[in-house]
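Purpose: get a first structural picture of the assembly so the mutagenesis plan has something to point at.
Setup: two entries, given in the order below. No constraints added.
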Amino acid sequence: EVQLVESGGGLVQPGGSLRLSCAASGFTFSDYWMHWVRQTPGKGLVWLSRIHGGGITTSYADSVKGRFTISRDNAKNTLFLQMNSLRTEDTAVYYCVRSRFYYYHMDVWGQGTTVTVSS
Amino acid sequence: DIQMTQSPSSLSAPVGDRVTVTCQASEDISNYLNWFQQKPGKAPKLLIYDASNLETGVPSRFSGSGSGTHFTFTISSLQPEDIATYYCQQFDNLGHTFGGGTKVEIK
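Result (structure tokens, whole complex):
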């Protein structure tokens, strides 16, 4: 079964850091682009970042560029999102997402992990 | 950045009705558009890719059309299990942008 399981969410103070992980299983992880997408409470979806299967090519939304870093460990089938300088507006559910056909079609989503930025 | 304007933001229709959602891109995106369904408390699910292709396993009452800047998502006969929020999403070499969502309810 193809599965993505996020972890690492929690409560953090403004200005703090957090590292999210996403464990992938059921498919050849290194063959796929991966993404992080977030959703604020009661609001819509916002794409944050993506990374090529080989881990070399990355892209970021302007809202997180310079603060968040996406990376992957293909030997451990794990995707990461390092989040620094967190702000209250970063409070959201964070989803790990697989895409097929390059980065075009987001076809597998994790269940999400909740990040709360508050003092 | 490409902006995606989705309308309406919510709608209510009887079971069996035809439901249509539109998505307008701020510039030409060819057919680089997907549609997702999100049920409460769940992750989004891909329904339509490349504007008009039905994802495997998705009921045929769902369909998509359009290209360039104007796109349409249709449920041909609304069912109780279709209660959800639907999102369009564009993708390009810079990133991805979601529309604001359309919450679909049963009247």
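Chain B has a mean pLDDT of 97.
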